[in-house]
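protien #1 (seq + structre)
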Amino acid sequence: MMRNTAVLLGLAFVMWGCNTVPPTNVHQPMSVRPNPRNEAAPANGSIYQAGSSRTLFEDRRARYVGDTLTIVIAETTSASTKSSTNVNRAGNVSATVPTISGLPGKSLQGLTLSAQSSNTLAGKGDAAANNVFTGNIAVTVIEVLENGNLLVSGEKQVSIGHGTEYIRLSGVVNPYFISTANTISSANVADARIEYKETGAISEAQVMGWLARFFMTVLPF
């Protein structure tokens, strides 16, 4: 009985690990409900409704908590570095014992000593990274800062087969950069935190097992 219970607990733990949502570093919460409105005015017209209308010249760009806007992700980063080191050092020492007369140590006459040393250090290093991330994601205004900037956050989940992709984004948006189509480029998002993570068999195959990570940590070689 105890053995069966242990097996069931182990299977449950494995199933739970396969369905775990990846942790995130974006601003929380990733979605909020709009603030409650004041008591709506009664309907007073067939076209114009005072309770649900906005200012005549006001557009539909996000500006309040709970409003949504679309962020066009267009992130392209490229970085490279190269270093080279070359150091040489050489030394040469020689000594000769001359003819000795009237002094002890005649057995050393004609002895020649020499020593040479050479040290060489050469090192090279190259590193390069190129990343491209494009797409669109709708986010929600979760806070309106005192200067009028908007703190936005959002998540998109896409399930394909047995895997799930998580696209998350948060940051601070200046309302003046929001276009009339209620969109803004990710390049204009301050304190941007953009994540792309996935779960499933493909992502698990790229992760080192916990036992292998343990030995990689404790082994000195």
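ok now protien #2
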Amino acid sequence: MHIERTNKLFEIHIEELSSWGKRPHKHNFFEIVYVEKGSGYQCINNHEFEYHKGNIFLLPPLDCHSFKIEEESLFYFIRFTDHYFLKNDGLTSYKDWFDKIAYILANYNKVPGDIVPTERERKFIIDNIKSIYQEYLSADSYSDSIIAGSIASILNVLARSIEKRYVDQANEIDNRFGEILRYINTNIFNSENLRVPKLAEKFGISKSYFSEYFKKQAGISLADYIIKSKLKIVETKALHTDLSLKEIAYQLNFTDSSHLARSFKKVYGMTVKQFKSTSGQVCCV
């Protein structure tokens, strides 16, 4: 299947459509879709989600998507490429931005569909999208900085929305558990903060009981949860960066690349290389 590629750092465009004439496709950009008007269904990796005016969707890289349009629709498509997050201009910490993206994608599968929880946040994102579009068209000496700030704002709101939803779901089980998951995911690059004594002290749970408590709430052990959370980020970094397995292992505090490779194969039943070659093969029709 053809995958779109671009050397541009960023692009945005508007399309008004009464039918989706394009073939279903995969892309190697991160994409945000805002529905200015219309209704129908969005298909992502063979799963359909109803859409209406005002909906905002995040499309991770290599996901396959198409639209079934029932009412004429106006879409804003914002695509920001791997190049955008991996460039180094000496002004912005793009590595931090990419780690934010990795965090979003690691948890996005838990909250499919529209992910904006409040009308205030929805209006904020829509206003920023429209501002980005105007700056993209004017393209003066200030535009890049304004666009960068707007994208950062959108990503932070989306990350917070995704986090809040799965934290709230966990808090329905126990009012501390969601905060524990939030803490683990935001400290996933810092192994010292994820040790049982540290977690037990922070959340007021006995050290001798914490592991049992966590497994009771999560259904898996703390160690397995941490490994699986790390491996979701490994997926993103393996697919969308040029980092070696050794470099990824170092960032995520695996003992070495062999430890990472063994852990990945144990959970996924395949090597990282096999995962990269087979990722995203299921597509919408």
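The two ends are 13 Å apart (CA to CA).
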